[in-house]
Amino acid sequence: MRSTTLATLALLIAAAAPATAQSHDHAGHGPAPAAAPAAGEFERLDANRDGFVQRAELPADHPLLPHFEMADRDRNGRLDRREFDAAQRMR
Ligand SMILES: [Ca+2]
Ligand SMILES: [Ca+2]
Fold first, then answer.
1. Regarding the domain delimited by 37-90, which CATH topology (the fold level of the hierarchy) does it fall under?
2. The pTM is what?
3. DSSP string for 33-68
4. Proximal ligand: closest to the CA of 51
């Protein structure tokens, strides 16, 4: 009787554990989109979310800063995503 209860308990735990771990994992990390790192960096740098990264939004030590003029192909003083991605690839 006692051993049967223990076995049942062990089975329940074994069955519940992976499901719990899985749902926790999903809640913890959320969906993982296959976004390129450069795209993520663009979003992070675009502080005011206007879809452009301007010079002021780049940190002083950002590797793109010295190349900003070159990266800004249409010379409008800000980098759109395509200009940003191109500049990231040039580095
Ligand atoms: Ca911006
Ligand atoms: Ca531009």
1. Recoverin; domain 1 (1.10.238)
2. 0.57
3. ----HHHHHHHHH-TT-SS-EEGGGS-TT-TTGGGH
4. 1
Cα–Cα dist 72/55, whole Å: 10
Q: What six digits make up the tokens of 38? A: 């450069």
Quote the ligand 1 centre to 32 CA distance (angstroms). Answer: 24
Asked if pLDDT for residue 39 goes beyond 90, the answer is no
Q: Ligand 2: distance of its center to the CA of 68 in Å?
A: 9
CB atoms within 10 A of CB 36: 10
Interatomic CA distance for residues 51 and 80, integer angstroms: 6
Q: Burial level of 1, CB count in 10 A (0-12/13-18/19+)?
A: exposed
Cα 15 to averaged position of ligand 2 atoms, centre (Å): 55
